[in-house]
């Protein structure tokens, strides 16, 4: 997916003694990709990335430079829904910190994971009756289908979450069991173990914000051949996955069967929950899973793989989906 860029000519330095002294205006956009953070700093800034002046210290040497940092801003989510009497109402669902730029997919994935909606089609209106001058860029108004029942008594959470984890701590395995979670495909041996160690490098090639800032989480959707189909980034790891799940929900041609979600960080319970709701049967990450993530993977028969790095990985559950025997035979043949 092409990404919008901001030309360095479109921002100006305003205060060299300030930590953050660069502002940019989106006067023009152009598409460009690079794998080097240094090249990015001297050429273009992605939407969601800001320029920042820094003092670089190396021993006794001090130099002034421009760095790229990730943007973190609040998003206030409003739901417009019908109550039990059929009367339309509007209420703030929550405020979450995120990297701007993909709000609709973020909110779609979040509402799916939390069981507020069952499909992307349950969102029937977005920012209706609002002029651009009337609405903040940090709020989104979603009108839900009249068939959607929003039970606020069951929404047990604070009104504000934080970007380090997105939305955390609501559900348990028992509550997830009460929901209509799709049964995962139990086909054996469809995923070659040889391609798994390459997922991290493939994702990195598409992480434009990480390549510029080094300060975001990423995730990707792969097929059984190891082809990267989708990728998303955000300052919050939960938000990055919500964005990915939102895109997937809006792309019905992408069947979740024999697909893999790959994460750039660790695996928590909430991340497993989001993948289970999508119907995808394999979750792989660079980092470690928590014990609750492992328990949930076992309960719902999800293939869970951690520490996918340096050519190896750990399988915590669901090894039956891996084709390890063929991999060993190929190694012997070589």
Task: Give me some keywords for this one.
334 residues, alpha+beta, Ubiquitin-like (UB roll), Cytidine Deaminase, domain 2, 3 domains, 6-stranded mixed beta sheet, 4-stranded mixed beta sheet, 24% helix, flat, disordered N terminus
Notes on the protein architecture:
β13 (217-223) and β14 (228-234) form a beta hairpin. The chain starts with a strand and ends with a helix. It has helices at residues 37-43, 103-113, 173-177, 199-205, 208-213, 237-249, 269-278, 291-300, 324-333; strands at residues 5-6, 11-13, 22-24, 29-30, 45-46, 49-58, 61-70, 73-82, 88-98, 123-126, 139-144, 191-192, 217-223, 228-234, 259-263, 282-285, 303-309, 312-317, 322-323. It is flat and about 60 Å long. It has a six-stranded mixed beta sheet with strand order 14-13-15-16-17-18. With 334 residues, the protein is α+β, with helices and mostly antiparallel strands. The model is unreliable at 1-42 (pLDDT under 50). The relative contact order is 0.12. It is 24% helix and 31% strand.
What's the arrangement of secondary structure elements?
Elements: E1 5-6, E2 11-13, E3 22-24, E4 29-30, H1 37-43, E5 45-46, E6 49-58, E7 61-70, E8 73-82, E9 88-98, H2 103-113, E10 123-126, E11 139-144, H3 173-177, E12 191-192, H4 199-205, H5 208-213, E13 217-223, E14 228-234, H6 237-249, E15 259-263, H7 269-278, E16 282-285, H8 291-300, E17 303-309, E18 312-317, E19 322-323, H9 324-333
Parallel strand pairs: 8-11, 12-19, 15-16, 16-17
Antiparallel strand pairs: 1-4, 1-5, 2-3, 6-7, 8-9, 10-11, 13-14, 13-15, 17-18
